[in-house]
Write a structure and sequence with these properties.
alpha+beta, Ubiquitin Ligase Nedd4, Chain: W, Helicase, Ruva Protein, domain 3, 2 domains, three-stranded antiparallel sheet, 5 helices
Length: 147
């Protein structure tokens, strides 16, 4: 396996680095690291040491490769994905207008500038999309394209 905490202390002392507050973290049976893509790295029977420096703790995890495994997230099968899309496409789009929402003057002007629509059309689209400016612009443009 790798270096234990005593060996690391001796090596650092030989290099002129002292007082790192290196201590072994005992009784660790497993370490799991969660990655941003949904993958995990699972380390069984690790040797863990902690160094304290300038108000920070640095953890060193060591294990033999046989005790380490990377688990990738399971992608949805294409069949499930396409059936989900079909279900979404088959359902009619119903947009409820929220009686509380009133578009701001800036939002109305922006929709009008981007689409060339009237003030009333911009307000109607913003209310129908509950203030989603991009959706309101697309809605106005598609309604104008259908006329």
């Amino acid at each position: 396996m790798g270096l234990n905490s005593r060996e690391v202390k001796r090596l650092l002392k030989r290099l002129g680095i002292q007082d790192l507050n290196l201590e072994e973290v005992s009784n660790v049976t497993r370490v799991v690291i969660y990655l941003g893509d949904g993958s995990t790295i699972e380390i069984n029977k690790p040797m863990v040491a902690r160094m304290k420096m300038q108000g920070l703790s640095i953890y060193q995890v060591q294990a033999v490769d046989a005790d380490t495994k990377v688990i990738k997230p399971q992608p949805a099968t294409p069949q499930q994905r396409s059936s989900l899309l079909i279900q979404q496409m088959q359902q009619p789009t119903v947009t409820k207008t929220s009686p509380q929402y009133e578009p701001s003057e800036d939002d109305v002007k922006l929709v009008m500038e981007e689409t060339g629509c009237t003030r009333e059309e911009a307000i109607k689209a913003l209310k129908e999309t509950n203030g989603d400016i991009a959706e309101a612009i697309i809605r106005v443009q598609s309604q104008r394209g259908n006329k």
